[in-house]
Design goal:
alpha/beta; three-stranded mixed sheet; 10 helices
Amino acid sequence: MTRVRFEAGDDGVGLVTLDRPDKLNALDEETFAGLASAARQAGDAAAAQTVRCVLLTGAGRAFCSGLDVSLFGGQVGQAPDDAWIASLQEAFTAFEDLPVPTVAALHGAVLGGGLQLALACHLRLVTPDAQLGLLETRWGIIPDLGATYRLPRLIGLSRAVDLAVSARTIDGQTALDWGLADAALPADDVAGAARAYARRLAAGPTLATGAIPRLMREALAAPRDAALAAERSTQALCLASADFAEAVRAALAGEQPAFQGR
């Protein structure tokens, strides 16, 4: 059975679904491989301009409950191969590196590796009653799928350390208050509301909206002059784009622009 499904919709939204509802979408080796494959498919569709926003969801009662315990079987009492952990990290980072906006729709359990997957997306939507947390220290390990890099940049160092060290959970409303999530989803229409949000992004000027997350992420580690130079070079591409020409045409005509993502 396929652990992860990718579907390119005719509305420009590429839907990635974690599909192990009986296991609360826990991440095993096949799921990581499925995520890597889905990211490649999304990247190909983005290059072909058939997908202009990627939406990650979880089937059933949860987004993702974390790592499947089967992943730990061969690691007890020995250090894992660094390349193995790197391959798991890359399956998440691939979504962060997509050239179109990526959105995670979070409901139910969003724990451990599930939260780390959500952190790799550009934006997060959440139901107020969702439960989010990093539970790795309950196993005597650290969150090693990008959380130590991404979480402090979203919510600040102190809150990030507290969440990771305590292994406690917070609800979706707290995630919204902290800036860990960006918008609320209604519990009775998670799929519909998330799709509508993604559809709005897909209808935008995705040359620009896809570049913004990358520029901001890189600017956090770059000197000011390098960040400003990156803005200039990217803006040059945007000013030469069909979407900018369409925006100007529509403004002069008193109309709404119809962006094509190029």
